[in-house]
Design a protein that fits this description.
The complex is a heterotrimer of chains A (285), B (277) and C (263). Chain A has helices at residues 46-53, 78-84, 101-105, 116-129, 134-137, 147-159, 177-192, 204-210, 228-232, 235-241, 247-257, 269-284, and strands at residues 3-12, 20-30, 35-39, 61-66, 69-70, 85-88, 165-169, 196-200, 213-218, 221-227. In chain A, helix 4 (116-129) crosses helix 6. Chain A is α/β, with parallel strands linked by helices. The chains are: A alpha/beta (285), B alpha/beta (277), C mainly alpha (263). Chains in contact: A-B, A-C, B-C. At the B-C interface, helix 2 and helix 3 of B face helix 8, helix 9 and helix 11 of C.
Chain lengths: 285, 277, 263
């Protein structure tokens, strides 16, 4: 499923002294099955961008198209959007409220035409994706789970609707390393199955490994948009946008300042290693 | 002389053995002026341990002595809380006032201090965290990193001997994290405060003098960072990942390249591979 | 965040900022009396002028000072209409189903809206110009007589003060959770009443849980900093009222007399 933002403008507290342009003419087109990382300093408009794309905040100007349809057009039905688009907010574990896991995960399916059997099948599959055994947990209370487990339940609740687009706002913040890896592996898998993914994160290492395209926002303006390697090699600009290109890229840069020849598009550990080996061998001699 | 000495601490939130222990026989000592990192994944029991050190949870089993005070005695609890300050994970849930200077004065006032002495102390702790000039600002309107620095200042205002940081950087963006880590580095090098830092980032633990690894309510191992963080088997058992530099060390070793010591940070790795001449 | 939270203390150096919090609280109570009593044109004009005057004195932008009062415009409209249609049914100009608009209702509606608006504005100016902990101490001082009835005055004042501060945070959290549930198909914006009612649970449960969790964490953080409920916090040097404080109170007393005086 494709997503397109055209010249989107959104202003908080318009016509007051506190007026603030959260998005200022942002245009962005994301094709079917793409994995896009969105970065920028806190308050640059990343979360607002996701919410506008999710149909939750009407922009003052501009349009948002999902599969070519304007989602803010008068006749567009919100319920259809919910089935197409999965949104994971920051700390999604906070949104849990139902009495059982089954009800919680199937919440998004309430207004669909699915039969009971189909619903159960979807809930079961969604729980499996995040590593739960449906039979074991279906009757348990979601509120009794630990923080990390609650987040996985919230993710299952989003996946149960089988969205074609996933909008993820800092989904790995606060997770421990293994939790982070598991989540990113799941996202990769869904992306491989054709789901379009937009992921907001400060974690450049994670984005370098998983996203293929990076979008950077600054003060509500699209500052950069391109393949990961290309965006992460624009070092001076990245510093200005408050974005660190990750540990491997930082290391490569340090090596360059010491006169080593490491190309600027070395941004992942796997690409850095051959250069480390080369220097290591030279040191041995 | 240890400032913290825990012996066989055991704790269950449900007060029954069948529900499992969140702390299961932890023994630990901390020396004055030391920086100890407690490393563990979510649910490993590290936060429960931290809350014990400040007696925010009652001691169920085992012994705990803080600055020579027995934590099992109710009469010691307030003295221990004065000795051990604690900074929490969520910067938004620690402020009692929407004016920075009032919030910083909250701790000392609870211990009956007031007037000019408190004002002077507020000035000093703000300076210590690099936030002078923010006296009249509202903490709620600051950035994440600034909020945590104010939270640290609020605890420093009590002039505690020990500062406990319970995942104080987990909810911050990279810039905010750097700001907080910089304050911690300064406090560590000052040597006056004992620091206990709870974290799941191996990279952060690298700055401590000593690292203790927790999993399933137990202490899996402890030692200097260079030993603990290079122990891939230990970290693996604890569900943690080694720092990238450690990963590189072993990848080089597999290719027959042996570095003089295991680097903990990428800076160290760079220094080893191409030293400045 | 959708703009600054309303009612949070704004640092400043106006006359109002410098008044003793106790004097300000007392003045607010006097004003409360005056506003309730004012039922003729002169009284209304006097309290209106007075509130306008303190807003001016506070040095705050008008939008900020009236912020939270202005946000309740729908509520104001509702109480106005209720009064207009139902206050004096026996003197109605017209009858349409259950609605009976009357001249008395019109005046009464306008008066109620006028009073609530002024009180909200005055209360807002108080919290905007007084640091929360100073307000806590002020409240504690005012409530002191209740201490004899074994009411934990200090704790009540602390709870009030902390609660006031958490309102903006909780409002913001509510908005986030509302959007999150909408993204999952909850129909808050549905025009069908039963759908709207059904959508309340997914909002209320998480908001309550979040509020409890915040309260719990804050309580821990306060305890860790040595707060002991029940133990008195040190009195700030109990300085006597200064001339400005007495003057503020006198003006308010005068206003009360003016409002209560029959014309």
């Amino acid at each position: 499923m494709s997503l397109e933002l055209r010249e989107v403008v959104l202003t908080y507290a318009p016509h007051t002294a506190l007026e603030c342009r959260a998005l200022d003419g942002v245009s962005l087109r994301v094709e079917d099955g793409e994995f896009v990382g969105i970065m920028g300093r806190t308050g640059c408009g990343k979360s607002t961008l996701l919410q506008v794309a999710a149909g939750l905040m009407r922009p003052a100007e501009g349009t948002v198209l999902v599969d070519g349809e304007d989602i803010y057009a008068p006749g567009y039905r919100r319920s259809r959007l919910c089935e197409r688009m999965g949104v994971l907010f920051q700390y999604p574990e906070k949104q849990l409220f139902e009495t059982t896991v089954e009800r919680e995960v199937s919440f998004a399916l309430r207004h669909t035409d699915l039969t009971m059997a189909e619903r159960r099948e979807r809930v079961c599959r969604a729980l499996e994706l995040v590593g739960f055994d449906y039979q074991k947990v279906r009757e348990q209370s979601p509120l009794g789970f630990s923080g990390g487990e609650k987040r996985r339940l919230a993710i299952a609740g989003v996946l149960a609707a089988r969205p074609g687009i996933l909008l993820l706002d800092e989904p790995i913040a606060g997770l421990d390393p293994v939790g982070r890896q598991e989540f990113l592996a799941l996202t990769d898998r869904l992306c491989g199955e054709g789901v379009t993914v937009l992921l907001v994160s400060h974690n450049a290492d994670a984005l370098a490994d998983h996203a293929r395209r990076i979008v950077i926002l600054e003060n509500g303006v699209l500052a950069a948009d391109g393949p990961v390697e290309q965006v992460f090699s624009r070092r001076e600009e990245l510093a200005r946008w408050g974005v660190s290109p990750g540990q491997a890229a930082e290391c490569a840069e340090q090596l360059r300042t010491r006169g080593e020849e490491v190309p600027p598009d070395v941004i992942r550990y796997g690409e850095l290693l051959p250069y480390l080996l080369r220097m290591g061998r030279r040191r041995e001699r | 002389m240890y400032i913290i000495r825990a012996d066989n601490l055991r704790h269950s939130y449900w007060r029954s053995a069948s529900a499992g222990y969140s702390l299961d026989g932890v023994s630990l000592t901390v020396q004055p002026g030391e920086m100890l990192a407690i490393l563990g994944r979510n649910g490993s029991g590290k936060t429960t341990l931290a809350r014990h050190l400040n007696v925010l949870v009652p001691i169920q089993e085992g012994e705990l002595t803080v600055a020579g005070l027995d934590a099992r005695q109710q009469s010691n609890v307030w003295k221990i809380r004065r000795t051990c300050g604690m900074v929490f994970q969520n910067p938004d849930n620690q402020f009692v006032s929407s004016v920075v200077e009032e919030d910083l004065a909250f701790g000392p006032e609870n211990y009956g201090e007031s007037g000019d002495a408190v004002a002077e102390r507020v000035r000093r702790v703000l300076e210590a965290v690099g936030m002078s000039g923010f006296e009249r600002r509202s903490p709620h309107l600051l950035s994440g990193g600034q909020k945590q620095r104010i939270a640290i200042a609020g605890v420093l205002a009590l002039d505690p001997q020990v500062l406990i940081l319970d995942e104080a950087t987990a909810m911050l963006d990279p810039q905010g994290r750097q700001e907080v880590l910089e304050i911690l580095r300064r406090l560590r090098d000052g040597g006056e405060k004992t620091l206990v830092m709870i974290t799941h980032y191996a990279e952060e633990a690298a700055m401590a003098h000593r690292v203790a690894v927790m999993e399933g309510g137990k202490l899996l191992g402890e030692g200097p960072p260079r030993q603990v963080l290079a122990d891939r088997e230990l970290l693996d058992r604890a569900g943690l990942l080694p720092p990238m530099a450690v990963r590189a060390f072993y990848d080089l070793e597999r290719e027959g390249i042996r570095l003089p010591a295991c680097p903990l940070t990428m800076e160290e790795l760079v220094d080893m591979l191409c030293p400045l001449s | 965040m959708t703009g600054l939270p309303a009612g949070l203390y704004q640092p400043g150096d106006s006359v109002l900022h410098r008044l003793d919090p106790r004097a300000k609280l007392l003045a607010l109570f006097l004003l409360l009396g005056a506003v309730i009593a004012a039922d003729n044109l002169l009284g209304c004009a006097a309290v209106l002028l007075f509130v306008g005057w303190i807003v001016g004195l506070s040095g705050l932008p008008l939008g900020t000072a009236l912020g939270s009062a202005a946000r309740l415009r729908w509520f104001f409209l509702l109480i106005f209409l209720m009064n207009l249609f139902f206050y004096a049914p026996e003197e109605a100009w017209a009858v349409w189903w259950v609605f009976r608009p009357s001249g008395k209702g019109l005046v009464q509606g306008a008066l109620v809206v006028f009073r609530v608006f002024l009180l909200l504005a005055a209360g807002n100016v108080l919290t905007l110009t007084t640091p929360p902990m100073a307000l806590t101490d002020g409240m504690e001082w005012l409530l002191k007589p209740l201490g004899r009835l074994k009411i934990p005055v200090g704790q009540v004042a602390m709870i009030l003060s902390v609660a006031i501060q958490f309102i903006p945070v909780l409002l913001e959290e509510t908005e986030t959770i509302r959007r999150a549930q909408m993204a999952r198909g909850a129909r808050f914006d549905s025009s069908r009443l039963w759908e709207k009612a059904g959508a309340v649970l997914p909002l209320v449960v998480p908001v309550f849980l979040a509020a409890f969790q915040r309260a719990d964490e804050l309580a821990l953080a306060m305890e860790a900093r040595g707060y002991r409920p029940g133990l008195p916090r040190p009195r700030k040097e109990e300085r006597p009222f200064r001339r400005a404080d007495w003057m503020a109170l006198s003006v308010c007393v005068l206003l009360c007399v003016l409002a209560f005086a029959p014309v």
